[in-house]
What we know:
This protein has a domain at 33-91 and 108-129 and 140-172. The chain is globular. It is of the alpha+beta class. The model has no long low-confidence stretch (mean pLDDT 84). A four-stranded antiparallel β-sheet has the order 2-1-3-4, with helices on one face. β1 (24-30) and β2 (33-40) form a beta hairpin. The chain has helices at 2-21, 53-63, 75-90, 135-138, 147-158; strands at 24-30, 33-40, 111-118, 121-129. The termini are far apart.
Amino acid sequence: MGTIENKKNETQNNNTRKFEEKRFEFVFFINNHIICQRFFDIKNFNQDSINSLELKETMDEIIGTNNGDFGTLGIIPNFLKKKAQTYLWDNYNPYHNQKDDVYKKTDKIDNFQFEIRVDKRTISRGEFSGNLFPPKVRYSVDIKELIPSIIEEIEYGLSQKKYNVLLDNLVY
């Protein structure tokens, strides 16, 4: 009986060790409350990426709200936009006449934040307004299906061979 318990403890220790060995992580927040946090590894990590223009471009690809010539959205805002459209169409009733006082503005500001960390040190942080999306959408965010795309974008951004290195740190 003791051997089964020893094997369980050994398996838990191995899993904990594997979890601790991962150097890279991203964290997604709303109003500084964690929504999602993932640890992962990057092959061919280039240290020059930490202070590079490409890191800013990587952040824009993930959380940007005004990218490119036509104001395209990053991975997460685009996902939230699609969720908002689905929610609004599902709750649309063309036969219901709503009064103007239903659309009251609130003073509450909701911001989404996103961080990329290397060795538990934040190398880049950005945010975008959550007030662009209905409360039912912004308070019930589930980005599980986006995690592979986010990690892929970060891996690409941090493992290039050559970078445009900036003098200032890129925490914005």
